[in-house]
Amino acid sequence: MLLGLPAYAFRMNALLKSAAQAARNGTLFIVLNTGSGHRDVDEEKQIIGRVLQEGGRDFEFLQCEGDESIDMLARRAVDLAKAHQGVVVAAGGDGTINTVANAVLGSGCPFGVLPQGTFNYFGRDNAISQDSSQAARVLLSGRISPVQAGKVNGRLFLVNASLGLYPQILEDREAWKKQLGRSRFVAFLSGVATLLQSRHQLRLRIESSGQTLLLRTPTLFIGNNRLQLVQAGIYTEHAEAVAQGQLTAVAVRPIGTLALFGLLLRGMLGRLGEAEKVQSFSFRRLTVAPHGMKRVKVATDGEIAWMQVPLVFEVAAEPLLLLVPTPADQAEIA
Q: pTM of the full predicted structure?
């Protein structure tokens, strides 16, 4: 049952107060993904640990043991944080941050991030430095800020969710990275290779706010990150809608391979919103039913999973209680 506005405001104030107290004094339980990015794990642990020790803060690094997955590790971190009035911290790329945030959401625990991936859209959009020592200092002196999360069929996403061509690009990109290493250039090359082989079009029935739209498209992209939308050149009002409690959908009308390359270049140049074949709109809840499909591949912050249809994209009922830098410690968003 949804809470009324006064009850919701009272609950949020109580959560923010409790989270702020834990953020000031609680133990930091740091979920570390040893596979994120291209950094030396032991060196990163030393850098982060030195900053936290100098700040007089208790902390514990948590890494997967045996057959333990990142999902299981994240839930263990949440249990520890709840038991000790501590803070759950995700150290890794957007995928790792997504997994840990999925466990944290709704727990009442404060959430911190140490961005260590390739793109780091979530950290950058919240002015958190990609330098580990600077990001660790945010864990000591940051303030709690409610941050919007999106959901698709109950699965959280902080940056984006998608179906169709975009998940295929991500899947192929991981295969390329395993062979050639993690870099933005490798990501670009793998994207080009995927476009050359792309032929499939989705037929979607989309419902939102009582309106229905039938759409043919190679991909449907749902954005929850203002920085990514702005850098791609999506119209300002749709990018800003994310900061005002909505999500933004971006779809490409049916086009050929050469035109897809053109859209890729527009996105790199920050001019995607100018393209005639691109349409975008904002919403709080969107139901998507792909024609003739019982399940479909969906990407959430770079992680791919099969989901039953219809897909329901929506703004999560509660925000994440994120530790963000004070104005003096904010990293430049680039």
A: 0.84
